[in-house]
Predict the structure.
Amino acid sequence: MKAVVYEKYGELEDVLELKEVEKPTPKDNEVLVKIHATGINFADFGLVKGKPYLGRLWSGLLKPKNPILGADIAGQVEAVGKNAKQFKPGDEVFGDIGSVGWGGFAEYVSVPENVLALKPVDISFEEAAAIPQATHVVVQGLRDHGQIKSGQKVLINGASGNNGSLAVQVAKSFGAEVTGVCSTRNLEFVKSLGADKVIDYTQEDFTKSGQRYDLIFDIAPSHSISDYKRALNPKGAYIAGGFNSTSLFFGPLISMLGSKKVASYMGSPNIENLEFIKELIETGKVKPAIDKSFQLTEVAEAIQYYKKGAQGKVVIKIV
Ligand SMILES: NC(=O)c1ccc[n+]([C@@H]2O[C@H](COP(=O)([O-])OP(=O)(O)OC[C@H]3O[C@@H](n4cnc5c(N)ncnc54)[C@H](OP(=O)(O)O)[C@@H]3O)[C@@H](O)[C@H]2O)c1
């Protein structure tokens, strides 16, 4: 099968190579998926470069442990291992395989069945590949950690990208009043996702406007925790979906010392999240937003396009 492989860390265009590699065979608890589309995520860029260096403790000290990247997949089950009971050949599935060895930049992958769910009906494979990892980040951030409720004022900081474009729609589906923060060029896009208000961070600092929110979901940490807390209502919550070292290390302590919650988390794949988003898609409350679709030969270009700031998601169409 064809796959985009990297055997050493380096610049995208230097180390990502399209190669012929052996097609995997499913182990007993696995399903073999013919991948139709795969999504680009934040981690792809850092993993190819091997930066930050600390990350190499997980990704491989001297060379990459997982030579085929790509976490979000959508495709069709081709074969099932003898203990895999959830799917049958022909089923259309989607999921985030980043926790089980990656492998989405390829024509096939074999993965444990417990990271996959049936793909939402009536959306394309590209649309389905656009959301699994963002689903785990957004659903766990807004619903589980943020305890989002109807009628709340919710601000999404970083509303136009990969995670933010989904977060705006999921927050609206809960009945929240949603404010999206992004730069000038993306304001109309964020409005089109359903945001009630938009703020251009190049023109206005929402932490200084005097407006208060019940929940701030932060994809683009860019302020101090005290700034974020100032923009929260007395019992509000600040949830960092993007990397924020202060909330990661001190969030529980800060939360204990006052009435406002501060938290960070790592989104972890589970089927329940995928089924939750499937329902939102099938009832028309969420529509995966795709900025641009690339071919398997263009993975390096796709990751670079994402890094420049896409409107929604960047995907690779494989079949
Ligand atoms: N918690 C987890 O499990 C988990 C998992 C995966 C990724 N992540 C985190 O997610 C983040 C990447 O998210 P993504 O892939 O959605 O990124 P993305 O697609 O690059 O989107 C970034 C968003 O942030 C906005 N932005 C940039 N600078 C800003 C600023 N100063 N103020 C407000 N908004 C700003 C961008 O708007 P413009 O383009 O208009 O500037 C865009 O809407 C990383 O921090 C990563 O660590 C977390």
